[in-house]
Amino acid sequence: MKQEIEFIKFNPTQNMTVLIKTSHPAEEYQHIASRIMSYDHVYAEQVGFIVPPLRREAAAHLHMAGGEFCGNACMALAAYIASEQEMGPQDFTELLLEVSGTEQLIACQVKKRLNEYDCQVTMPLPKQIERQTIKYEGIDLDLIIVRYEEFIHIVVEVDEFDDAIQKRAQNLARLLGLTLGDKLIGILLYKPQSEELAPLIYVPGLDSLIWERGCGSGTASLGAYLAWKTGREITARIKQPGGSIQVVAQFDEKGLGSIHIEGSVGIVAQGKAFIDVQHLNLNKGEAHEYGHGFYQTVE
C-alpha cells in the first residue's frame, strides 16, 4: 500500500533538501524521510515537514525529520514562501519561521534573483563555546565545542581533508551520538588557510551520517568560533564542496552577538512521491554512497 506525499526539492549550496507539504503524524516523519532521502527515491540529504505555526507572527513551522535545527532548510522554506508570493526579480520580503531544535523565531530575508533566491537567515546563538583537548584513537585531538539547546557542533582545525581525519571524524560523531543525547552532532573540519569547511552531520534519530556539500548551521557555528577566538566581528565567505556560504558574527565587549548566514537557494522540483506505509527495513550497519557524501545506518 502506497501513501501519496507532496514535496518540494531545493538546492541550497548543493545541500539537497526536501520539504514535505502534506500533513503526517509526527511518528511517521523518520520513516518518510528515510525513504525520500534514499538513492532509489527522491534522493536528498535532509527532509523537513511544513506544518502550521503555533505563534501568530510566524509564517510557517519547519519540523526537521530528526527534530534537529537546519539553517539551509530554513532558507529553503523561506524561498518557497517567497515563490508563492510571485515575486519579481530583485523583489524583497522578510518573514519569521518556527523551527525545530530552537525556541527562537528565525528571521529570514529573501530576494529573488532570476531563477534563484538570495536568502539571509538570523541563526540561533550558541549557549557555550569552549576548547578541549582529548585523547582519541591514540592522538591528542584539539576540539572547539559549540553547544546549542538541542545540538552540538565540534570544530576541528586541520591542514588537509585526508581519509584518516575523515574516518576519525565519522567515528567520533557516532560515539558522541550514542553518549550525548543531542538531536544533531556536527563535526566541522576547517582549513584556516583557505577558509574551507568539510561538514559531517550525524542525526541520531535517523541514523544518518552525511558529509554535506554545504552546511548553513555549521557555517554559523564556524563564524561564532572565529569571532570568539579573535574577539571581534567576523565576516567570512566559507568555501564548501557545493559552493560558498557567507557568515557574519558580531562580537563586542558583551561577547558574541547576532549571527546570520547568507546563501542562494534554487527550487529544483515539486510534485508527488509515493511511500510504502510499511516500516522501512534497514539492515543495521549497511553503508551507502549518498550523493557526494556518506550515508550510513548505525548499529
Task: Offer a quick outline of the entry.
The chain is of the alpha+beta class and 299 residues long. Helices cover 19% and strands 47% of the residues. It has 2 domains: 2-122 and 265-281, Diaminopimelate Epimerase, Chain A, domain 1, CATH 3.10.310.10; 128-261, Diaminopimelate Epimerase, Chain A, domain 1.
Number of helices: 4
Basic shape: globular
Question: What value does the Rg take, in angstroms?
Answer: 18 Å
CATH architecture of the largest domain: Roll
Main β-sheet description? 8 strands, mixed, barrel
Task: Name some characteristics of this structure.
single chain, about 300 residues, alpha+beta, Diaminopimelate Epimerase, Chain A, domain 1, six-stranded mixed β-sheet, about 20% helix, disordered C terminus
Written account of the structure:
With 299 residues, the protein is an alpha+beta fold. The protein has two domains: 2-122 and 265-281, Diaminopimelate Epimerase, Chain A, domain 1, CATH 3.10.310.10; 128-261, Diaminopimelate Epimerase, Chain A, domain 1 (Roll), CATH 3.10.310.10. The protein has four helices and 18 strands. It has helices spanning 29-37, 71-84, 163-180, 216-230; strands at residues 2-12, 17-20, 46-51, 60-64, 92-99, 106-113, 116-123, 128-136, 139-147, 151-157, 184-191, 196-203, 208-211, 234-240, 243-252, 255-276, 287-290, 293-296. The strands form three sheets. Strands 1-2-3-4-5-6-7-16 form an eight-stranded mixed barrel. Helix 3 (163-180) links the parallel strand 10 (151-157) and strand 11 (184-191). It is globular and about 50 Å long. Mean pLDDT is 90; it is low at 279-299.
